UniProtKB/TrEMBL annotation:
Keywords from the UniProt entry: Ubl conjugation pathway
Lineage, opening ranks: Eukaryota, Viridiplantae, Streptophyta, Embryophyta, Tracheophyta
Biased composition regions of type Polar residues, renumbered to the chain: 508-520
Natural source organism: Zizania palustris (Northern wild rice)
Region listing for Disordered, in residue ranges: 476-550
GO terms, biological process: protein ubiquitination
Domain NPH3: 154-427
Pfam families documented for this protein: NPH3
Name of the protein in question: NPH3 domain-containing protein
């Protein structure tokens, strides 16, 4: 390039040399036999400049290109951290670094080391992540001897978080291709990189960004392993929230919704509160998006159940899976949150509630809370709308505390309150019957197994059970019993129940027939006390044919009593 005129004042300008003047200086020093210092920060620039200046072996043996290639293979690519540094410098020297395959060599070196068995990792790495108790420093063996803890599987994650998204994508793709690492480790690496590049994603504040951030979110979504559970559902929902706010595109959003739908049972209510994008809807939260995710989960859960059972099972008889029960609980919590929004349409509320089947809710307290919240925030609802809303609940599945609240809830329709009251009284009566019967059977078995009659304390115990279970007044309509050949008819009222007769004296043996008669008397008296419905048919005495009718009363407030 220098003319042969002999003019020493001429200046040569090389504008397109890779690495600029510093790289050219390294090449010039090498030509004059001066000491040249190469490291991970300047070796790529020097290699590209030497290629530009055609410093090959054809010109002179041991030229700079050869020397640098030897240095890269014997030192740089053998070092974990130097390989990462060199990869970071290749972007400034494109397309030279790409054409010389320097980028591919760096990526292969990093991916190979990340995929190495942890027992063979002998180089230094950065690891400030939260460790398990048995992964922190030295650990004690069972015999008390200290041993060096093995290298964690995600030892390589933190060192890669400083790379740009393009280089990171190439490394993760290469790691996946090798197939040596578990998918959850790769997912954890992507999660760590995302939080490093987008720290606002882990906070409550909204994510802000430009086209560069949108492109990063799309790339991260594409890098996620396809296997279920490779990343947490909470992280996926945060990505979906950010993608929705930044309008990253329909494909990105659908891919995230598909992944979330497969593991929705891991989500929490706060994760599902995805704000609506301005201008699209009037509701605070995007209910349609959550509805689509829930529907997808329900379909997948149904397919899994059919596959597990081998045949199609009726939803009314099929026991819900544990994951379905968890989703139902989360949906009820989400409904309670969206119910606070005055703009939430009742049809969307009902549709989302009905998406989860009723048998997936062992207890309807969460659904009752959501319905009550909706009634509170929407006082202008008509009677038919209130009835339709309350029909979502099964009053038989409300806890005692929820029933106590519901019967005093003025927002509920009267029909719903009556249903709650009826089922609560039915449940209480059934519990009393079971309790009284179990105590009576125990008393009867005790009398059969003993060699003597009951003592005074034992008879007092039987009387206490009768006093607890009997109603204040029991009507005997007809009585026709035959005992030891004698017939007796009776018609009248018996107050407090029949008192069992004591044996003549202590030490006298009791016949089984007498003990059995006492058991039945206690059990039947309890039955007469727990009949609750006004029109219930009379119950027939199992031994004597007595027809027992319930005694009831209604106080001034309209409460039903027995």
């Amino acid at each position: 390039m220098i003319p042969t005129t002999g003019d020493e004042s001429i200046e040569i300008h090389i504008h397109d040399i890779p690495g600029g003047s510093k790289a050219f200086e390294i090449c010039a020093k090498f030509c004059y036999g001066m000491v040249v210092t190469l490291n991970a920060y300047n070796v790529i620039a020097a290699r590209c400049a030497a290629e530009y200046l055609e410093m090959h072996e054809t010109v002179d043996k041991g030229n700079l290109v050869y020397k640098i290639d030897v240095f890269l293979g014997s030192s740089i690519f053998r070092s974990w951290k130097d390989s990462i540094i060199v990869l970071g410098t290749t972007k400034a020297h494109l397309p030279w670094s790409e054409d010389l395959k320097l980028v591919s060599h760096c990526i292969d070196s990093i991916a190979s080391k990340a995929s190495t068995d942890t027992s063979k990792v002998e180089w230094s790495y950065t690891y400030n992540r939260k460790k398990l108790p048995n992964e922190n420093g030295l650990d004690l063996d069972w015999n008390g001897v200290k041993k060096q803890q093995s290298v964690p599987h995600d030892w390589w994650v933190e060192d890669l978080t400083d790379l740009d998204i393009d280089s990171y994508k190439q490394i993760i793709t290469a790691i996946k291709t090798k197939g040596m690492l578990p998918k959850d480790v790769i997912g954890e690496a992507i999660k760590a990189y995302t939080y490093k590049k987008l720290p606002s994603l882990s906070k409550v504040s909204m994510v802000h960004g430009d086209a560069k951030v949108r492109a990063m979110l799309v790339t991260i979504t594409c890098l996620l392993p396809s296997e279920k559970g490779s990343v947490s559902c909470s992280f996926l929902l945060k990505l979906l929230k950010a993608s929705n706010l930044l309008k990253c595109g329909e494909l990105c959003r659908k891919e995230l919704m598909k992944r979330i739908g497969r593991q929705l049972d891991e989500a929490s209510v706060s994760d599902l509160l995805i704000p609506t994008v301005d201008g699209e809807e009037t509701t605070v939260y995007d209910i349609d998006m959550i509805l689509s995710i829930v529907e997808q989960f329900v379909r997948q859960d149904s397919k899994n159940a059919q596959k597990h059972n081998g045949v199609e099972v009726n939803n009314h008889t099929q026991a819900p899976s544990s994951s379905m029960v968890k989703v139902a609980r989360v949906v009820d919590g989400y409904l309670a949150e969206v119910a606070k929004d005055p703009n939430t349409p009742i049809l969307k509320f009902i549709h989302l509630a009905e998406t989860v089947s009723g048998n997936s809710r062992p207890v309807h307290d969460g659904l009752y809370r959501a319905v009550d919240m909706y009634l509170k925030e929407h006082p202008s609802l008509g009677k038919s709308e209130k009835r339709k809303l309350c029909s979502l609940m099964d009053c038989r599945k409300l806890s005692p505390d929820a029933c106590a609240h519901a019967v005093q809830n003025e927002r509920l329709p009267l029909r719903t309150v009556v249903q709650v009251l009826y089922h609560e009284q039915t449940r209480a009566s059934a519990a009393a019957t079971i309790r009284a019967d179990s105590i009576g059977v125990g008393s009867y078995e005790s009398s059969r197994s003993g060699a003597t009659t009951n003592t005074e304390d034992e008879w007092d115990g039987v009387m206490a059970v009768e006093d607890l279970s009997l109603s204040k007044t029991t009507k005997l309509d007809k009585c026709d019993t035959t005992n030891h050949g004698n017939s007796k008819g009776c018609n009248g009222k018996v107050k407090g129940g029949a008192t069992p007769k004591k044996s003549p004296a202590l030490g006298t043996k009791t016949t089984p027939s007498k003990g059995q008669s006492g058991e039945r008397s206690s059990s039947d008296s309890s039955d007469s006390a727990i009949l609750q419905k006004l029109e219930l048919p009379k119950r027939t005495h199992p031994s004597s044919g007595c027809a027992i009718a319930p005694a009831f009363s209604v106080d001034a407030q309209g409460s039903l009593g027995f």
